[in-house]
TrEMBL record:
Its cofactor is FAD. InterPro entries: FAD-binding_Monooxygenases, FAD/NAD-bd_sf, Flavin_mOase-like. It comes from Apiospora aurea. It comes from the Eukaryota. Keywords: FAD, Flavoprotein, Monooxygenase, NADP, Oxidoreductase. This is Cyclopentanone 1,2-monooxygenase. The keyword Zinc does not apply. Belongs to the FAD-binding monooxygenase family.
């Protein structure tokens, strides 16, 4: 006879919704899969922790939040969407991106198959039924043949465990939990801790608004000029008639953009020619000075130093105060340029020329604790009304590891990845059948961009599901050997670059205790795309299909 708890769980399982696929996350990856799997005839549901579509753009509403991939790279390639949508800016802000997601949801009719406010907390594989049982925090249960995680790389916030956070009398915020109602920041004393993309966007937008702004910097941000453009009357970056070719070209570029590294090395050119190229890339804005430059920039220390020196001299010229100049753009290169996420800026460095904006170097004056009044460093106590903790995320793996996912052996994903991350092609893991993820570890991810990766990986996953349906197969699982081999490829590619010499979230460095390892596939989008295509053509090599 079963126990009382057994009968309760039987009851709840009886009410489980049966699905062909459960998709988690309503950002680019998730909405793409909902549309395309449903069109292909699968019974699908999309569940999302937030209250609407947008993924990171649903959560990140802080002043200045903006994508730094330009459009039309940063949109879906479906003509039904772009023929009926006009962007207002070359680099749209967070509110415009949410409006775009509402447009996508309407044109693709997504709402009827989406459940919001549903944080997935666990998933268990049942080998007998060949299905995942997935539970959300609010108590919904799904039984799905496929479990498709589109949780992105920045879904688990990171706040350092400073003493005294709870004692602070003002407002303590992580930017990705920005309140939906407008905050009264006018004239206030505000701290921004962290100088990643979030910190610099926030600081730039807050500076003209607040009374005092203190930016707490641990590592410099080698931001490049964004070169924002406002569009009038539906005008866009390129004519719409060119869009189909443009979208096809995304898989030809290292970063999934419409530009690529050039086929020359830094010192192939004489200093004058090199300077002309740098100036041109600088003037064009976007990530061009990072990803449309000499092909050896991320590989050769001397080439890298040359790029840094150009960035440094350009940046130093914007900053008036000698101490601040040395902190924001030091003469001596602190780390390899481009091996830590480069950001795009719109006047970030110039804010430090204002007398009410302060730069605090946490290396020379570390944060000791948060106090009721503000932040106590080794030098003094700073008083604030707001402390904005732009300290980032347990990037790339944290979004997946925060869910209790257990395969047939009972082992959890956290346990499987405890010492190191293993995947096959950055899509799936051995011991976790019929489970796939997008925009995660060991794929190009931040070296690609949301929509490009969503389409490339989403199409591949759908192709595999169709293949299985055609052949009457029920179960697909990564072979252990193939995930060991993929890890070797990921490490070899990364070790050929300068990335491992630099501390960054690309290497897991930002979270205390996280294993240090290259978390990304650095072979570029074209090689990744080719590898996925070949695996499919050869009957899904690296996977066991039953
Ligand atoms: P990031 O890029 O992880 O930036 C976090 C920032 O917070 C970074 O400057 C960190 O310094 C800083 N940080 C983290 N912990 C501390 C402590 N303990 N003390 C002081 N400063 C600290 O997150 P973002 O939100 O800016 O961007 C995430 C991604 O979203 C971004 O790359 C885009 O792809 C979009 P560090 O550099 O580690 O020394």
């Amino acid at each position: 006879m079963g126990s009382i708890t057994d009968s309760f769980s039987d009851l709840s399982l009886n009410s489980a919704q049966e699905l062909g696929a459960l998709i988690v996350g309503a950002g680019f990856g998730g909405v793409y899969q909902l549309k395309h799997l449903r069109d292909a005839g699968y019974k699908v549901k999309l569940v999302e922790a937030g209250a609407d579509y947008g993924g990171v753009w649903y959560w990140n509403r802080y002043p200045g939040a903006r994508v730094d991939s330009s459009i039309p790279v940063y949109e879906f390639s479906d003509p039904a969407l772009w023929q009926t949508w006009s962007w207002k800016q070359r680099f749209p802000g967070s509110a415009e991106l949410r409006a775009y997601f509402a447009h996508v949801a309407e044109v693709w009719d997504l709402r009827r198959d989406t459940e919001f406010g549903a944080f997935v907390e666990s998933a268990v594989w049942d080998d007998g039924e060949s299905k995942w049982t997935v539970k959300t925090k609010k108590g919904d249960i799904y039984k799905a043949e496929f479990f498709l995680l589109n949780t992105g790389f920045a879904a688990k916030r990171y706040i350092p465990d400073w003493k005294g956070i709870d004692t602070f009398k003002g407002n303590f915020l992580h930017p990705s939990y920005w309140p939906h109602e407008e905050l009264d920041l006018k004239g206030k004393k505000v701290a921004v801790i962290g100088t990643g993309s979030t910190g610099i966007q926030l600081a730039t937008d807050l500076a003209p608004l607040v009374g005092e702004l203190a930016v707490f910097q641990r590592t410099i941000n080698t931001s490049l000029p964004m070169r924002q453009v406002d569009y009038q009357d539906g005008e866009q970056e390129i004519p719409r008639k060119d869009y189909p070719d443009f979208f096809r070209g995304r898989t030809d570029s290292f970063g999934g953009f419409d530009f690529n590294f050039i086929g020359r090395s830094t010192f192939d050119d004489d200093p004058e020619t090199r300077r002309e190229l740098y100036e041109k890339l600088w003037a064009e804005g976007d990530f061009k000075f990072w990803l449309a430059t000499y092909q050896d920039m991320l590989f050769d220390p001397a080439a890298n130093r040359e790029a840094y020196n150009f960035w440094r001299d350009k940046t130093r010229a914007k900053i008036h105060d000698a101490r601040v100049r040395d902190l924001l753009a030091p003469m001596k290169q602190p780390y390899s340029f481009g091996c830590k996420r480069v950001s795009l800026e719109n006047g970030y460095f110039e804010i430090f020329n204002e007398s009410h904006v302060h730069l605090v170097d946490v290396n020379s004056t570390p944060i000791e604790e948060i106090t009721p009044k503000g932040i106590k460093t080794s030098e003094k106590e700073w008083e604030f009304d707001y402390i904005i903790c732009a300290t980032g995320f347990d990037s790339i793996t944290g979004s997946l590891k925060q869910i209790d996912i257990r395969g047939p052996s009972g082992q959890s994903l956290q346990e499987h990845w405890k010492k190191a991350t293993y995947t096959h092609m950055g899509l799936s893991v051995s011991g976790f059948p019929n489970m796939f993820f997008s925009y995660g570890p060991q794929a190009p991810t931040p070296f690609c961009n949301g929509p490009t990766c969503a389409e490339l990986q989403g199409d591949w996953i759908l192709g595999l599901m169709n293949h299985m349906r055609d052949k009457g197969l029920k179960k697909v699982e990564v072979e252990e050997e193939s995930e060991n081999k993929w890890r070797e490829i990921v490490l070899r590619l990364a070790n050929a670059t300068l990335l491992p010499n630099t501390r960054s979230w690309y290497m897991g460095d930002n979270i205390p205790g996280k294993p240090r390892e290259p978390l990304l596939y650095l072979g570029g989008v074209p090689a990744y795309y080719k590898t996925l295509g070949e695996a499919a053509k050869n009957g899904y090599t690296g996977f066991k299909l039953e």
